[in-house]
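Input.
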Amino acid sequence: MEKLIRDGKVAVIYSPGFGAGLYTWNTEHPDMIFDPMLVDLIETGKYEEAYTYATLRWPDAYLGGLDTATVKWIPQGTLFRIHEYDGSESIEIKEEIDWLIA
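Output.
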């Protein structure tokens, strides 16, 4: 899986808008959240081109969350997950979560 890495950080795409999550509605395409071309298109605000690119790259993907997608840079090797609530995605870093112990 190709990832875009700058200054020791990996670009991760997620969709914070409510309605549909980009990754959480497409977990069968984990490469989507790291795709360097998609990262570049989103970072430069070229959402129409991003939609066209994603449609060609992942023809069976649901792209409803693409219109609110953004990029977060996470230190390489960091354990994280994309959490979804009501279609709004957020990135949770393992070390930043207060876990409970039974």
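The chain has one domain: 5-96.
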